[in-house]
Design goal:
Two copies of one chain form a homodimer.
Chain A: E1 5-12, E2 16-18, E3 23-30, E4 35-41, E5 44-49, E6 54-60, E7 62-67, E8 74-77, E9 81-84, E10 89-94, E11 98-104
Antiparallel strand pairs in A: 1-3, 2-3, 3-4, 4-11, 5-10, 6-9, 6-11, 7-8, 7-10
Pfam families (chains A, B): Ppnp
Function (chains A, B): Catalyzes the phosphorolysis of diverse nucleosides, yielding D-ribose 1-phosphate and the respective free bases. Can use uridine, adenosine, guanosine, cytidine, thymidine, inosine and xanthosine as substrates. Also catalyzes the reverse reactions.
Family (chains A, B): Belongs to the nucleoside phosphorylase PpnP family.
Chain lengths: ~100, ~100
């Protein structure tokens, strides 16, 4: 089941641009103050650092990810989620655009 | 005056990726059905075609644009807007990321 739309949010108009544009996201805020982001990773192999724990939900495309301290690349496609601990990092490799929702906390 | 947030919208989670990622946007829909998009153009010189008329509102960064049938490059920076007729096109050149809201119709 893919989350195609998120209703009732405030969107931050300025994008977050990471890795020279290989990752672009927009922040959204729910009525209760919860923050998430919607974004896309373009074809690349990147390493992301986390502050807060994150849940990455794929809404289109796919990626492979490798959590810090593991050796396994795991595929994540539309409808899949994976969790990343706080103050950690993960590698991601993308060959077709990976569209995601990032849930924090 | 820059529009930093847009409240009370539904956001489409899958990004629109144009020109190999030189332009990335997310669609938003208001309660009354009005559609806009929030996006960013990364450093590049591109030509965009319009279907519906568009108003491009800069929320951060800047660009220069040239409307079809004109010879003048015009700067547009945060807080500025420019209008593009329907079924037309415009050139845009960006040297720092141009963050925008696209209003249709």
């Amino acid at each position: 089941m893919t989350t195609e739309k998120i209703d009732g949010v405030s969107v931050t108009t300025q994008a977050n641009v990471y890795f020279d544009g290989k990752c672009v996201s927009h922040g959204i805020t729910f009525a209760d103050g919860t923050k998430k982001s919607v974004g896309v990773v373009l074809p690349a192999t990147l390493t992301f650092n986390t502050g807060a724990p994150e849940i990455m939900e794929c809404v289109a495309g796919s990626c492979e990810y490798k959590l810090d301290g593991t050796d396994a690349w795991v595929k994540s496609a539309a409808g899949d989620k994976f969790s990343v601990p706080g103050n950690s990092k993960f590698d991601i490799r993308v060959t077709e655009a990976y569209h995601y929702i990032c849930h924090f906390g």
